Amino acid sequence: MCAPAPLGETYVAALQHGLVDVPTDTTLVGVVSRPTHWFGAAVDENRPALGPPGTLLDDVEQRREDLKRRGICDEGAHNAAWEDVEFEERYRTHLDTDPDARDAVDELVDRLRAGEPLFLVCFENTAQKRCHRTLLREHVTARLDRG
């Protein structure tokens, strides 16, 4: 059996400003549940089911705003909000239990096994803020490793 194609990840601004080297045969897969009108122009496709559920995004945003009002910088508030709302656990549960998310993960795994290189794309610059994209990449990679 051949090794699966590579799976990369980046954020949309890095694509727009040429900050990331993406091989020409790579499909850019957006993983944003609430894409802006311009996001679609930066990716080849978007899979909203792989973005965090709306309730989770709302909880993070509300907590982030609370922390910012207390004087915490945006990045610090974002990252602390992740911890406070148990983002990782809730997002991983979403990937395991939501039928649309499971189907979308299965499709990515099948495409990678068929040799299609993919890059997961969303908004967050992970040098500053935690992002679901990294968790999703770990999840897909673990599925590939299970065979």
Query: How would you sum up the major sheet?
Result: 4 strands, parallel
Which residues form runs of ≥5 with pLDDT under 50? none
Question: How many H/I helical runs?
Answer: 7
Which percent range fits the helix content?
Answer: 40-55%
Q: What Rg is obtained from the alpha carbons, in whole angstroms? A: 16 Å
What separation lies between the terminal Cα atoms?
Answer: 10 Å
Order of strands, main sheet, comes to 1-4-2-3
Bin the strand percentage: 5-15%
Shape from CA axes? globular
Q: What's the rounded overall pLDDT mean?
A: 93
How many discrete structural domains? 1
Alpha-beta classification: alpha/beta
Give a count of the beta strands, DSSP E runs of length 2 or more: 4
The ordered H/E elements are EHEHEHHHHEH
Overview of the structural elements:
By secondary structure, the chain is an alpha/beta fold. The protein has seven helices and four strands; from the N terminus they run βαβαβααααβα. The chain has one domain (7-146). α5 (87-97) crosses α6 (99-113) and α5 crosses α7 (132-146). The longest helix is centred in the middle third of the chain and has 16 residues, at 54-69. The mean pLDDT is 93. It holds the Pfam family DUF488-N3a. Residues 43-142 form the DUF488 domain.
